[in-house]
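Sample intake sheet
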Amino acid sequence: MKTMKRSTLAIALIALAVVIAAIFFMTGGKPSDKAAQPASAAGAKGTAPSPKPALTVTVARPEATELMLTLAANGNVAAWQEAVVGSESNGLKLAEVRVNVGDVVKKGQVLAVFSPETVQADIAQARASLAEARATAADAAGNAARARTLQATGALSQQQINQYQTTEQTAKARAEAAEAVLAAQQVRGRNTQVLAPDDGVISARTATVGSVVSAGTELFRLIRQGRLEWRAEVTSAELSRVAVGTTAFVVSASGAQVRGKVRSVAPTVDPQTRAALVYVDLPNVQQNTGIKAGMFARGDFELGRSTAPTVPQASIVPRDGFNNVFLLKPDNKVAQLKVQIGRRLNDRIEITSALPDGAQVVVQGAGFLNDGDLVRVVDAPAPTAQPARSAASAATAK
């Protein structure tokens, strides 16, 4: 009986040991949470938790960049010279109009034609009058010659001889007058064709088929040689900076940009505006669909180049009407600084105000920061390399 009790007790002890071993294996031999809590609490009392960064950013240093010195101006685009093409004939009917607005014409090209019937009849009449005058002049010349041969014989008086000579001179003058009338009618005949006075582009047309116009009536307007010019207004204080040959970049209201050169500077200044006109030659009107005569355009004169500190455009943060940058301090906190900006070159902007020595400005993430924020700085990502194109595809793109 005692042996059975001992066996039961041994089995119970073995089972208890197995349960304890299982519990220890499942908990990994770690103390309970309740036991760990006092230890962690004690550690927290000794060390404060470190603050977390507000944002991950990239930074860059200001770089010295070569920028263009420019002078901004405004003005109108106009034709270099505009020729008025009119009618030289009077009372003729317009039979044909061969050009329209926008057509490119050459010097001597026929623009319009008048009905020639009336002029041709006048030419025929002038020729007949000339033939009659020449016959009369020849008869008078013969009579005068015979009278001069009889002068020594005394058969004719001096008065009669003078009369024959006067008749000869009068007939000769009438023949010359008839020649002049014929020449005038021939000029009228040539004027039945309206010719272009120069190469250029037709900018206006008032000619209408079937209309009877008088001499001097305007039929067309022609932009000579297709040349346009930008008449920029420059103040008298800045006028000395612009010289003949200076390059100018002109931008229209539509955004079209062309490059021109200063042809001349006006010798006088407007007493009302204290500004002078600077005439800038623009390329051919047909090659610039975005620049037209009569447009208002702004532009910049290229005066030279200079070196200035620039920062990436993404680092400029406009706030409360001012431009700001965020400077990285040694403790990885940022300080907001108001700056003055100037010229632009691609994605970089000139800083005209002073920056601290060795300054680093926040680029990526600058728009989400406030003064005194703690940041984490990482390197800027490298630009993605463009895949190389084959020679055939590059040639096709060109």
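Comment: The helical segments are 2-27, 33-46, 117-149, 158-190, 391-397. The CA atoms of residues 66 and 307 lie 4 Å apart.
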